[in-house]
Amino acid sequence: MISWNETTILNVAEMDSQHQRLFTLVTNLHQAMASSQGADNVSRALEELVAFTQLHFATEEALMTRYAYPEYETHKQEHEHLLQDVGQLLQRFRDGDVLIPFAIELDLEAWALRHIESRDKQLALFLNSKGVF
Q1: So what CATH class is 11-126?
Q2: Where are the domains of the chain?
Q3: Which end of the chain is more exposed for a tag (fewer CB within 10 A), N or C?
Q4: Which residues of 63-99 are buried (b: 16+ CB within 10 A; e: fewer)?
């Protein structure tokens, strides 16, 4: 399971609070699937996670634009790629593939940890140099 800890803290309050919320939403999805709460609860948890991921990416992209982050395009492309993949998986779930929430959970866990530890840490260092904490 993905967990919020010291290695994921970036010292940019807005990003940190949103990352923590994303981890909570991944946990909520996992719990909905593990407890057999029914397809409606899994669907709600899944859609909330996807919607918040979109909001989070928009927040990061706004910060990158506001402070003229030089790696904006590469970072944004990673966001777009994940959203495209998750969007396709979400559609498959809506079409009746009940194993998709598990795939989305695994994708987001692995992607989030990799992305936070590489791209987001670079972005945070840049933002910290601009006085954003």
Answers
A1: mainly alpha
A2: 11-126
A3: N
A4: bbeebebeebeebbebbeebeeebeebbeebeeeeee
* pLDDT per residue as tens digits for the range 69-81: 999 999 999 999 9
Is residue 26 classed exposed, middle or buried when 0-12, 13-18 and 19+ CB atoms within 10 A define those classes? Answer: buried
Taking every pair of C-alpha atoms in the chain, what is the biggest distance, in angstroms? 48
How far is Cα 44 from Cα 119, in angstroms, rounded to an integer?
29
DSSP-derived letter for residue 131 is T
Provide the token pair at 65: 């634009």
Structure tokens that stand for 85 in this block: 């993949």
Query: For the whole model, what pTM was predicted?
Result: 0.90
Q: What is the distance between the alpha carbons of residues 60 and 66, in angstroms, rounded to a whole number?
A: 10
Average pLDDT over residues 73-102: 89
- 57 close to 28: Cβ distance less than 8 angstroms: no
Tokens 């990158």, residue? 64
**DSSP calls for 88-129:** HHHHHHHTT-TTHHHHHHHHHHHHHHHHIIIIIHHHHHHHHH
